[in-house]
Amino acid sequence: MKIKLRHAVILGFALIAAGLSIFVLKAAVLHYPLTPGVRATLWDFELFLEFDGRNEPARIEAFVPATDVERAFPQEEFYNGSFGLSLVAEPQTRNRKAVWTYRYPANRKVLRYAAQTLGETKSTPLPLSFREAGPGPVPFEADPVKRQAFIVWSGNLRQRSADDRSFADLAIAETFGERTGSEQYADEISALLDERTGDAGRLELVRQLLRSQGVPARIAGGVYLAEARRRVETHRWLEYHVDGEDFRYFPDGEPARFFTIWYGTAPMIQADGVDNLDAQIALRALETSATAIAENAPGPLGSMARTFGFSGLPLTTQLVYQVLITIPVGITMLVFMRQFIGFKTLGTFMPVLIGIAFRETALLNGVLLFSLLIAFGLALRFYLERLQLLLVPRLAVVLIFIVMMMAGFAILMAETNQAMGLSISLFPMVILTMTIERMSIVWEENSASEAIKQGIGSLAVAAITYLAMTNSQIEYLMYRFPELLLVLMGLCVLMGRYTGLRLSELWRFKALAG
Amino acid sequence: MYNTIKALRANGVIGINERNVKYVNALNPRKLLVRVDDKFLTKQIVAPAGIATPELYGVIKDARDMKRLPEFISHPDGFVIKPAQGSQGKGIIVVEGPLKGGWRLSSGRRIDLDTMKFQINNMLSGMYSLGGQPDKALIEYRVKFDDVFGKISYRGVPDIRVIVVKGIPVFGMLRLPTAESDGKANLHKGGVGCGVDLATGKTMRAMQHDQFIDIHPDTAHPLEDIQTPYWDDILLMAAKCYEVTELGYIGVDVVLDREKGPLLLELNARPGISIQIANRKGLGFVLDKAMKLGDEKRSPEERVALSKTLSDSAPVKPAMIEPQGA
To answer: Which of these, B261, B225, B254, B257, lies nearest to B240 by C-alpha position?
Structure first.
């Protein structure tokens, strides 16, 4: 007894936990939206290279976005023309380089790279290697003058800061601050900075300052996903990790979304043996459904979610499952209403099947048609009782009568231009027949009021389950997160061991509560 | 609402869910249920244990048996036709005697042979059995009930329901037909249920439609303090059913015949829980006690003796029947 109870409870909670954890994983990590119709912006990124061949060996190198697991980009394309393309991965810097080569190009040539991306935000985590203890402080390597300046300045920065974090803030403020020449370390800073290198040089200086303190830092280059246009500039920024927190410093102002293309100080594009190189980056915003993006999520997790989803099925099958997957919701509600509230229904799952039939007729029409069919069916059943037919033939007569009634309704309604008659055809005839049979037995054996009570109870449960099963939010959740079936299953397992009183029994045993 | 739950819990009231999970499912193995679900089989297996049942006049399984129907029903004192797998008294025909070429039903109506055959055919095709499986029709002795309950019955046959847990009778109830229940003793049809004190066999206060009552609604006779004859025999009969059926949680339905004494009418593997209202206390605490005591090996006689100590004669407040006291 006790062991069975514990077993069931453990199984129930395990199913619920499994279902919920997959659900949370998909919602939080793969960003499956929780409501239907959520839109998201997908960016088309295009790198367009145009140049004149010089009839000598040409080599064009361009950094292209690394296919990190953390980043979503559904598709990428290369247009190579007659050039040879090789992709070189640099694991050290996490960069990926496209190298286009041709022996004797002539005339104007075009190379293209395109990808789609959702982009990243400030909250996109930095790679895990940043979190681990780095290789320790890296000393500054330069000529003695610069080194002297670096040591003096960094030593002083260290004195004026409390920890790595304030050190980083101070280093950035002093490197990027407007210099009036009157600062304490203006000389050291100008000795270290080559003004011609601009922000890239300053970022590099801060990076070296941070590295000398053992703080993991890197320079990233990419584009800001702000507006769709041609000839987008590339930007650089600094990424560092202090005290368990990720930081990004953008010298050109913080973008809402950005797309990292490469890391390091090297220029994005390097071309040898060509003239009049024109490199353009174009961005285009695409409004798409967030679900579609989530379903194309990269990485093993994304492909697993795809495998266990319905999007791979043919469209007609998908539509079928969109309906089927809501039935367990109705069934679970039915179990609850029977075990906890104590609804009396005709037949175990009959109300849910009627609820499914209501999908076609809508609620009010469905209830009307159902009541009419049951009423006429019952009348026929009582008449047949007098003919003393055997059970199975009698059931058959009732079923045929129901089909006739349904056809009659359809024709009548069609003539008066009522669309509702046409929707009736999917009413479950067999279920109706059995309902009529059960109801008439209850009618005879118990009482008419009991039969009507059970009929109304069934109708009420059918209406409630119908409302739940056709709720677009529930339909969406079940269809996009089929793992919720495990949760429903777990709930039913737990309800299967519920030994408490039903709501209706509180009423029934009221006399004993005094 | 919370207070109601608390009060019901304190009185040991159990609901259908608890009955199903803790008692019916746990104590009644599914493969043994056929012993009580098929009344024909029940009759056969209880006979060797010395449990008396109404005499069987005939069994109808198919059309060939139907030809012998006139032979089976040639009893001027009347007879009863019931589906072997019927539940809650569904489909039972009680015939009191011949009437104008046909027969008189207990309800006073007349029935002819064709109607009777039609209704038997309904039984055979499974109209009253669970899941509509083909069934048998039993034709048996009509009980001539003891007059002791005559003043508190309106037509039909009163019967006695004893709940037996692991062979220990725990609750008893006298079920009385009323005008509303159409001569049937089923509580959900409006029959009256009287709690019966296990120790003495005397009726206690009663209920109808889940409400307490003190007098019979039709005869207006007080229901309390009527001695059930053969009470110890009834308890022993109920206790013996445990060995026969090996089911740990059953309702034993017994009727008292004027000449033959107590007869076992049928066994029920899912006895209803309204008996709690008739006894004006919950089953919970007594069931807990019986569940513990029932695991020790005892003879039916010892279990009957034990059952009389389980509860006191008056409807008790829970404090007096603490389960720890056992």
So the answer is: B254
User: Among residues of chain B, what percentage have pLDDT more than 90?
Assistant: 11
Q: CB neighbours of B248 closer than 8 A, spacing ≥ 6? A: B23, B26, B27, B28, B165, B166, B242, B294
- Residue B320: per-residue pLDDT: 42
User: What is the residue extent of each domain of chain A?
Assistant: 128-252, 316-482
Which band of pLDDT confidence, cut at 50, 70 and 90, is reported for residue A136?
low
Q: How far is B245 from chain A (nearest CA, A)?
A: 21
Mean pLDDT to the nearest integer, A433-455? 83
Q: Do A512 and B8 make contact, defined as CB atoms within 8 angstroms?
A: yes
Q: How far apart are CA A20 and CA A26, in angstroms?
A: 10
Compare A84 and A192 and report the one with higher pLDDT.
A84
Minimum distance, in Å, between the CA of residue A355 and any CA atom of chain B:
23
Residue A324 C-alpha from the chain's centroid: 22
Nearest to A502 among B17, B127, B274 (CB): B17
CATH code of the region B2-36+146-325: 3.30.470.20
Question: Among A407-421, B45-59, B123-137, which stretch is predicted with the lowest mean pLDDT?
Answer: A407-421
Give the fold, CATH level 3, of A128-252: C8orf32 fold (3.10.620)
**Helices B300-310, B284-293: inter-axial angle, 10-degree rounding:** 150
DSSP B92-140: -EEEEEEETTEEEETTS-EE-HHHHHHHHHHHHTTSSSGGG----EEEE
Q: B162 near B234, Cβ under 8 Å?
A: yes
Per-residue pLDDT tens over the stretch B222-255: 888 888 888 889 999 999 999 898 898 999 999 9
Residue A283, CA distances (Å) to A40, A44, A50, A343, B32 in order: 16, 6, 17, 60, 75
pLDDT for the residue A454 = 87
* Residues A509, B212: C-beta atoms closer than 8 Å: no
Chain A 439-458, residues with CB within 8 Å of chain B CB atoms: 441, 445-447
Instruction: Say what angle helices A429-445 and A350-361 make with each other, to 10 degrees.
Output: 130
Q: Is A509's CB within 8 Å of B26's CB?
A: no
Pair B206, B192: CB distance under 8 Å: yes
Q: What is the pLDDT of residues B79-94, one digit of tens each?
A: 999 998 887 777 888 8
CA torsion sign for A386, A387, A391, A394 is: negative
Chain B residues touching chain A at CB-CB below 8 Å: 1, 3-5, 7-8, 11, 13-18, 21-22, 26, 88, 90-91, 114-115, 118, 121-122, 125-128, 132, 188-189, 207, 210-212, 274, 276-277, 280-282
Whether pLDDT at A290 is above 80: no
Q: Which of A442, A505, A510 to mutate to test the interface with B (most CBs of B within 10 A)?
A: A505
Q: How far, in Å, are A82, A97, B273, B277 from residue A61 at the CA level?
A: 16, 7, 84, 90
